[in-house]
Design goal:
The longest helix has 17 residues, at 185-201. It is built from nine helices and no strands. The chain folds into two domains: 8-85 and 158-201, D-Maltodextrin-Binding Protein, domain 2, CATH 3.40.190; 100-141, no CATH class. With 203 residues, it is an all-alpha fold. It is globular, with a radius of gyration of 20 Å.
Length: 203
Amino acid sequence: MRNEIDSPETREALEFMAKGIEDGAVPKAVTTYEEESSRRAFEAGNATFMRNWPYAYALGKESNIANDFAVTKFPGFAGNEGAGVVGGYNLGISAYTDNPDGSLAFAEFLVTPPVQKQMFIKATLPATATSVYSDPEVKREIPFTTELLKAVEQAQARPVSPVYTEISQAIYDNVFEVLNGKQSADQATSKMNSEIEDALARF
């Protein structure tokens, strides 16, 4: 894995984020938000944008802003297309199961389009089968399916590394310091790069 953190693009992004808080465009409390606290702030009219899981859509439609928000894909920055990160819910079969064939059959059943359609409609769990997004019933029940499909298609996988946790921690800690005014973008980028390089050097 190649470390590309130490770059002008990283510094520019960090400066942009810090300026948003300094100017008041973003509430300082955003550095402590988790999914539910960000959803509540958004529904209370205290945030212009919110990034969240699809489940927040149905709850938003039951709130005071029910008719005043829309869903779109992740925006770009500095002329580059935006990109979320692929996560997901995965199916696995225990090595200790007494019925591996039945377990496999059930897993294969869960990924069929009809089942994914129901999971999409009932639980707002995005489908992995592309055909589900164009289903008329899905489009009627989940009006932002077109935008969600675009978001899935532009997403990228997390870096594969045996020290992913350390890489993630280095990014989180240093970004947090910038957003709280404790480090400059330049200092944070250099420190982040050094911590990631140290983690990579152990493997």
